[in-house]
Amino acid sequence: MASYGFDHSLLCPLSPFSCSGKFKFPAKTPLSTVEFCAKASKSSSVATTAIEDSNQPCFGVSYGRRELIVISTLPFLLPVHESMQKFGVKAAELGTTEYLLMKEEVRKVLSKGKAAGVLRLVFHDAGTFEMDDNSGGMNGSIVYELDRPENTGLKKSLKILEKAKSGVDMVQPVSWADMIAVAGAEAVSVCGGPKIPVQLGRLDSMAPDPEGKLPEESLDASALKQCFQRKGLATQELVALSGAHTLGGKGFGNPTVFDNSYFKILLEKPWKSSDGMSSMIGLPSDRALVEDDECLRWITKYANNQNMFFEDFKNAYIKLVNSGARWKNL
């Protein structure tokens, strides 16, 4: 399967395994979900915040009715904006703390050599999304799908992330969907690619997604574009995401460096060379892109402008990891 431009040279059959501890593949226990920030109830209004900020006690029986009305109304006259700002800052700080913890734990287990496999997890989890029936997507269902042929080799990558997730779960339980999305972004960054912000709050699916939803590596450009359109991704996004194939040792530059080598080498079409080794570069789906005029325009732009590629890849990645996600109510 040509999983959104990912390198299948990394795939090798692995014997089934199970992790020690609370998680096994597939999961035997319900998957955890992230709690992004504290949920403010209506009762904890800005009036309470204003009083706490002024170090005054809460309303007491000594207040008369008129005083109560004045006190309860006062925050809406001026301090309400400041109070809500402070609440928003606290919520943002909580989310940032959790986000930074996830990134920190991922960095402990992630090396450049493991980056391509971790990034591939993202594409195989999110790549099942279909707009027509709003099925699949970034929902952590990959943990139930590891024995499928297209996911060969991903058990190793998921086991690596299980170590990071365990560290985060000790502080704050997170979903697999969030963990994989963050880890993929870190895989890009650690290899020199763009820094990609990831929103938290995805819920995990409790069942596998339907089979046969990932694009096959044998598809031509027209079929690839149609496949991506069903997932809500335009041709530009197809080409940008395919640039991730620069990682993993399939002949598109340094296998541990995220750059625009993929596009430069596509333009050279080395597989047409008489050199036998050159024919091993890329997958049929990679070679198909450069034969399509619309795809070729974007390939040429990205080959000439790495900054443009980085920006477009970042935006396409964010869209991909939000596709089909079910979000926790905050």
The SSE string, one letter per element, is HHHHHHHHHHHH
Counting helices, strands and paired strands, the structural category is mainly alpha
Average pLDDT confidence is: 78
Number of helices: 12
**Largest sheet, strands/sense/barrel:** none
Principal-axes geometry comes out as globular
Share in β-strands: under 5%
Model regions low in confidence, pLDDT < 50 over at least 5 residues? 1-94
Please compute the radius of gyration using only Cα atoms.
24 Å
Write the layout of secondary structure elements.
Elements: H1 46-53, H2 65-73, H3 79-109, H4 112-126, H5 154-169, H6 176-190, H7 221-230, H8 235-242, H9 261-268, H10 284-289, H11 293-304, H12 306-322
Plain-language structure description:
This protein has helices at residues 46-53, 65-73, 79-109, 112-126, 154-169, 176-190, 221-230, 235-242, 261-268, 284-289, 293-304, 306-322. The protein is mainly α. α1 (46-53) packs across α3 (79-109). The chain is globular, with a radius of gyration of 24 Å.
Annotation keywords:
12 helices; mainly alpha; disordered N terminus; 330 residues
